[in-house]
Amino acid sequence: MMALLLAAVLALVALLPGWFGGFPPGRLLGLAAGHAGLALAGVVPAALLGLALGVLVTRPSGRALRPAADAFAAAAQAVPPVVAVALAVPAMGFGWGPTILALLLYGIMPVLRATVAALEAVPPEARLAALALGYTPAGALREVELPLAWPLVLDGLRVALVLAVATAAVGALAGAATLGTPIVLGLQNQNQLLVLQGAAATAALAFAAEGLLLALAGYAAGRGGYAGGARGGRSSASPASSAGSAQSMKP
């Protein structure tokens, strides 16, 4: 896969200078592990919040909240992560806290918009067929709508994850040990080699995250998981086929 190949090339670009006076490879790998953990700590709550808001504003009882949810997500993304980190430091102190907050705010919009678009693209006949077969609205959402919407939702999650990995480097400004640390040190000491290592390592981790997520999605689709069923459901859904799908899923 192209993303994983690019990740491998960039990882070599980041690690090789370590044997020629650059940032030591062992320390760089340690920073990469911390960077990945920090990105996940920020993107997981952002994904959960974006999914919850996306489901809420597509339900009849929550449609009136959609303008407010869109405005909240847009405002959260409009604040640059560096500014969010700087504003959070006085209240949260140095370390992971300010960076997690910035990543959370920055990751809500792609997940929210992907969830809304995906659920609105589900054929109405599929939901009606599920309700006709005796599902509750929550059951129809869980068993029919979300599986059909999953590929588009996954795209939003992928974007949020890549953004989190790429943006987590700013955590170095708040004292968090990330792949932004060599960049900050390089800028302070006018050492462009350190800047190159930090930037290449951050890009490698972002491409690796995207490649792994796409590989997992392909594996799930190959096993007949949500992705495969959803693509088929969106492309040729009809009341009869939706009813048949819902019947096959009904316990």
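Second entry:
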Amino acid sequence: MRVVVDNGPGKGRRAAAGKRLQPARPATSLRAATAADAPALHALIAAHLEEGRLLPRTLDELAVHASRFVVAIQNARVVGCAELAPLSKSVAEVRSLVVSQEARQSGLGHLMVDELGRTARRDGFARLCAFAHDPRFFVRLGFSIVPHTWVPEKIGHDCHSCPLFRNCGQYAIVLDLAREQALSGAGMGAAAGIRRG
């Protein structure tokens, strides 16, 4: 049995016999954030701090660095964000990756990391890194778990001032952009209802 999904305007899901009808997911677009998005970014990040996977960010910091974020928009609302933060001329980090509860399980996290990967390649970065308590999401995208010492840019930029330095519970995860093509296609950018704009 097949479920046909059309996420276009006014379309719903048609289910085969015996399946429940579910409402269609709203159309989603990805775009670069602007300083005007800082309050929405702050609210989204703050709402998910209790999950223990994000670091708090100040509104001022987000306004200054908004252009480094990609945002996912549904119904004119920011439902996801991710930042591409340069650590050096060759290494950038995926930070503050979050998708709102109601928009999860729709591939938005993959799409945003995919977009950051394209931006990192365009801007000449050789490696993309992330730090996460659960590395499985990134490993599925082609990242490799490495010792923290393999990302000295992160240690020098952020870790030395962290109270958990040398006792960190996060995994260091790296993608070699020069060799790896996991973020550049592999079907992720072709998800139904996703536009870049």
